[in-house]
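I'll show an entry:

:::
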Amino acid sequence: MTTPTPPQPEQPEPGGERPGPGAAPAGAAGNDAAPSAPSEATVAERAVLRTALRDTLILIGALLVLGVGIGALVAGTAGVWGALVGAGLAAFFCATTIWSMLRTVGSGPTRMAAFVMGAWIAKVIVLIVVLALIQDADFYDPYVLLVVLAVGAIGSALLDYRAVKDGRVPYVQP
């Protein structure tokens, strides 16, 4: 039986200093290196957000079908229009949040916060403009609109929670 030889420390290259901790490996160029592949965490985060977006689109489709059907039964044509406007607003609200998060995966916290805040401000402006435009209109039922929009917002939040809870995102990046 032989005993293994212990590993030998790296020898400095001839005519050069031994690189210190944190130094780039030999042959690596500072800023000229090719961009690295996305990290495991970034890929996992994108998968979670794609799942949330897919589930939200399915929710919006179900809201359209059920909202239009129930709106027609409850309030006739005005209920149909209320459901369509409510589902449209819900789709815009929900998809904008997920889209802004997808656009900033892997970015710094300042850029992500600015992007999400900008998307939130855009949502508020769109909501105010749409509600101001249809305020005095009588082609839609406001109660159907409110219910469809509320179900869309709450349902989307629950689906986002489920996507994050079931997602496999590492807590520590190697």
Residues 40-166 form one domain. Helices lie at 40-75, 77-103, 109-134, 142-166. The chain has a mean pLDDT of 81.
